[in-house]
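Sorry to interrupt, but I need a hand with the structure work. Could you add the entry underneath, on a fresh line?
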Amino acid sequence: MKVDAMVRVGLVAAAAVGLAGGLGFYTFVYARGGSYLTNDPAACANCHIMREHFEGWLKGPHRHVAVCNDCHTPHNLVGKYAVKASNGFWHSFAFTSGVFPDPLRIKPRNRVVTEDACRRCHQPVVETIDRHGGGAEGVSCVRCHAQVGHMR
């Protein structure tokens, strides 16, 4: 009798794992999940709410020197894919549930990543500003230059 119950529990667990895996795989394929593993900026426009940002990037000066990942993910492999995974999950959750701000607003954690990218690419200018009293806490690149990456 106990063996039958254990077999049933095992079958139910296997079915639940299979269902979750199948649903996850379907969602990944349907949402073109593989495109998010690339550096192609067009992947960001897969979601309709990001099209305006993508079109703004096409009009902006960074289009010639940077792609989305250059500004919106850390510059190391683990950090890059950790941010992509976290953002991907929360973006999917927000868009599936319909709970997201419109227009989109950058989250504080992602603002730090973007600020670090600005400072990395524009290091000579940033060093000059910092030397004259701006300091990392005193001046925020993205506060004054919010439209640079996504011209409107």
Summary: The chain has two domains: 1-30, 40-144. The mean pLDDT is 83. The chain has eight helices and no strands.
